[in-house]
Amino acid sequence: MPLYLIERNFAEQLEVSPEAAAGIIRINDDVGVRWLYSFLSADKMKTYCLYEASSVELIREAARRNGLPADVVIEVSELSPPSQFGALAPG
After folding, report:
1. pLDDT tens for residues 61-83?
2. pTM
3. Measured between alpha carbons, how far is 22 from 18 in angstroms, rounded to an integer?
4. Fewer CB within 10 Å, N- or C-terminus of the chain?
């Protein structure tokens, strides 16, 4: 399944309750996307979220239904130093 990184910019600091997060997951399930995890900026006004979905259109539809911005959506692939490059040499 393709991976997408979504940059979201908010006008005010973001505070997400467990109930709000559960609602987002329910809507995502209805659309067919999976929220894997997110990073929140130090000022709490920007997030970077990793999602699985079959298309960018589904990512944008889930964002629209959730009332969330999706300012930048890019397809990405996973790259992990230990699995891709072996152990790092001491140094």
Report:
1. 999 999 999 999 999 998 888 76
2. 0.82
3. 6
4. C
Question: What number is the average pLDDT over the span 14-39?
Answer: 94
Q: List own/partner pairs for 58-62 with CB under 8 A and 24 or more apart.
A: 58/31, 58/32, 58/33, 59/4, 59/6, 59/33, 61/31, 62/27, 62/28, 62/31, 62/33
Burial class from Cβ neighbours inside 10 Å (0-12, 13-18, 19+) for residue 85 reads: exposed
Tell me the residue type at 84.
Q
User: How is residue 49 written in tokens?
Assistant: 């979220």
CB atoms within 10 A of CB 49: 21
Torsion-angle region of 12 (φ positive above 0: left; ψ -120 to 50: alpha; else: beta): beta
Q: Can you count the helices (H) and strands (E) in the chain? A: 3, 4
